[in-house]
Amino acid sequence: MSMSPETGRPHTRLEDAYALTVGCIMLALGIAILKAAGLVTGGMAGLALLAGQFLPVSPGFLFALLNVPFFILSMRTMGMTFTFKTLIVSIGVAGFSLLFDHTADFTIHNAALAAFASGIILGLGTLAIARHGAGVGGVGIVALWLLATRQWNAGRTQVILDIFILGASIRFLGPTAIAYSVIGAVAMGSIVYLWHRPELYSGISPPFRTARDDR
């Protein structure tokens, strides 16, 4: 018999640690594929990939660096536990990205497929991290903050913010690359939109408890 949200237990620390590790690896892998394809995506990963095309720095390192200002918002609005987990995620993504840079070589033959596949990988990584009480980065922090405080769907919010980020990339990338990048961003956001729904999910890590979960 399945547990209802009222009776479901929170994740253990070991479950959280494993999920965050898996999420970091998937995010780093998705970024590596997009980098090899010369594409971008939404969120801080997209900004890091865009900046990485002009700077001799790993997108993973840029991802962690760009997230630093958002930790202030996170500490003030989401609490220390969420902020600490999100900091670990940023460091983890940076570390695994550097590892992929030195141990993996991706050859892209179909940019559209690479965009879609990387979007799925990034979406699943984001989902694993979000379900275990952490954010992926600046955009993820904002999206999850709005989910926790105003019950705005995190996937929908992320897609809206991603549109602005991809729009800012138009002047730096060609229309074909932007079109493929949009495919990946939609694939990523759709996974979060469809599957990160705490009201239907009994395994909950703070801060995504609903009011009835605390009764």
UniProtKB/TrEMBL annotation:
Record's subcellular location: Cell membrane
Keyword Membrane annotated: yes
Sorted UniProt keywords: Cell membrane, Membrane, Transmembrane, Transmembrane helix
Gene Ontology cellular component annotations, sorted alphabetically: plasma membrane
Transmembrane segment boundaries: 20-51, 57-75, 82-100, 106-127, 134-152, 172-195
Membrane topology: Multi-pass membrane protein
Pfam families: YitT_membrane
PANTHER family assigned to the protein according to its UniProt record, in alphabetical order: UPF0750 MEMBRANE PROTEIN YITT, UPF0750 MEMBRANE PROTEIN YITT-RELATED
Protein name per UniProt: YitT family protein
